[in-house]
Amino acid sequence: GQNIDQPTEMTATEGAIVQINCTYQTSGFNGLFWYQQHAGEAPTFLSYNVLDGLEEKGRFSSFLSRSKGYSYLLLKELQMKDSASYLCAVKGDYKLSFGAGTTVTVRA
Amino acid sequence: KAGVTQTPRYLIKTRGQQVTLSCSPISGHRSVSWYQQTPGQGLQFLFEYFSETQRNKGNFPGRFSGRQFSNSRSEMNVSTLELGDSALYLCASSPGRGGTGELFFGEGSRLTVL
């Protein structure tokens, strides 16, 4: 089976940095995804890691350590529009399994 | 390129009824996955179809079923509805072969069971 843990909520100030951690235990590993989901909308793809290390894409970066079963999503220069739920998802042997999501609230 | 389209967007049913939800994937995508999303549980995997065959199935009772047509469109059905079936049902498509396995989601069908 698969177990994916991430914090339920985080709050940060506009312009700040927030790091969302994700730990996982899976039977088989074929990559880790981060998705963003605004309230009432579909999840949208943010990043993909399959090898250890940091992937940077603009204000967002994602890190993976396969040996530790650990990933984080780093959001820099936070903007109000970044207020959303962030979903960590692990691709196991045959399916993509999601964590419960972290709701990030950005305050002015 | 049109995205994933799900219909209906909202529906209300009563206990014991059945419901059918529809999903049209991105053109050229052959894999369709269905997820149930509830506030406390997050996204729970229901099943995945590829080329009209169910490839994988999650831990849901037999009341939940699905199918995929030759044009890759998919439907899921829930029979004998229970209050706990109230949720957002998300459909996601992917090419199905190669690539990262990234899923492209529709906006979902929000089911309320009274």
What does this entry look like structurally?
The complex is a heterodimer of chains A (108) and B (114). Chain A is built from no helices and eleven strands. With 108 residues, chain A is mainly β. In chain A, β4 (32-37) and β5 form a beta hairpin. Chain A is globular and about 40 Å long. The mean pLDDT of chain A is 94. Chain B is mostly beta strands and 114 residues long. In chain B, the strands form two sheets. In chain B, strands 2, 4, 5, 6, 9, 10 and 11 form a seven-stranded mixed beta sheet that branches. The termini of chain B are far apart. At the A-B interface, β5, β9 and β10 of A face β5 and β10 of B.
Kindly report the average pLDDT value of chain A: 94
For the largest beta-sheet of chain A, the strand count, sense and barrel status come to:
6 strands, mixed
Tell me the total number of β-strands of chain B. 11
Cα separation of the termini of chain A: 41 Å
Would you count the extended β strands of chain A for me? 11
**Can you count the helices of chain B?**
0
- Given helix and strand content, the structural type of chain B is mainly beta
Helical content of chain A stands at: under 10%
Could you say which overall geometry of chain A the principal axes of the C-alpha atoms support? globular
The helix/strand order of chain A is EEEEEEEEEEE
Radius of gyration of chain B, CA atoms, in whole angstroms: 13 Å
Contiguous uncertain segments of 5+ residues of chain B = none
Major sheet details of chain B: 7 strands, mixed
Kindly state the mean pLDDT of chain B as a whole number? 93
Low-confidence stretches of chain A: none
- Can you tell me the overall shape of chain B? globular
Please identify the oligomeric state.
heterodimer
Largest interface: A-B, 22 and 23 residues
Series of H and E elements of chain B: EEEEEEEEEEE
**Share of β-strand residues of chain B:** over 45%
How far the N terminus sits from the C terminus of chain B, by CA atoms, comes to 37 Å
